[in-house]
Amino acid sequence: MRVDEEIKPADAVDVVAPDQVESAIEAKYIGDRIRRLRMKRSMGLVDLGLKTGLSASFLSQLETGRVVPTVRNLARIAIVFNKDLSYFFRDEQPVSFRIMRHNERVRLQKSSGNAEPSFFSESMSSLIADKSMVPCIAEFCANGEEVTFRPRVFEGVEFTLVTEGSLELISESETRTLEIGDVVWLDATRKRQYTCGSGQTAKAIIITRPHRH
Predict the structure, then answer these.
(1) Considering the entire predicted model, what is its pTM?
(2) What is the dihedral of CA 108, 110, 113, 117, to 10 degrees?
(3) Are 28 and 62 within one domain?
(4) 58: closest CA among 78, 74, 43, 36?
(5) How many domains does the chain fold into?
């Protein structure tokens, strides 16, 4: 250092703010990247824990962003998935859009006993890479008796848009009739059911969004 070089006083030094650090870490979506790698391998948290030497509960906290991973722990995970450590820090190219053709959707059906199928669902979740939303098409064909669909109860929200026919919605003690074009928002922790009347048909788009802890 030259003798005539000016030294800044301590209070003039630029210090990185803690919230800037947190924002920089969150912007890399490290937890989401770990989860995507694990799901592509159909690997549970316990399995990943056995391979990395990390506990399943700790890995869960990494994926949900409750703890910040060390470079050493990220290296363990990267080795398991044959990834370079830089994978967790590089910028991802944004996806402008995704298309799912009609014949690409998996159509599941449900029927009672030997009766003809009365309820169909077509999942569109593969369009959402991080599974932050789970959209599906629900189709009711009540040729004989009425058809009832009871979605699972979970922590999150549910949106339903009726596109054909009409449905009766019962949520806890409330009952509503939903017609074409009606949209309903529901707290998914509530028990609920959609019913299509006997001899009727109906179709709805149901989108669920789980809360992330």
Answers:
(1) 0.56
(2) -80
(3) yes
(4) 74
(5) 2
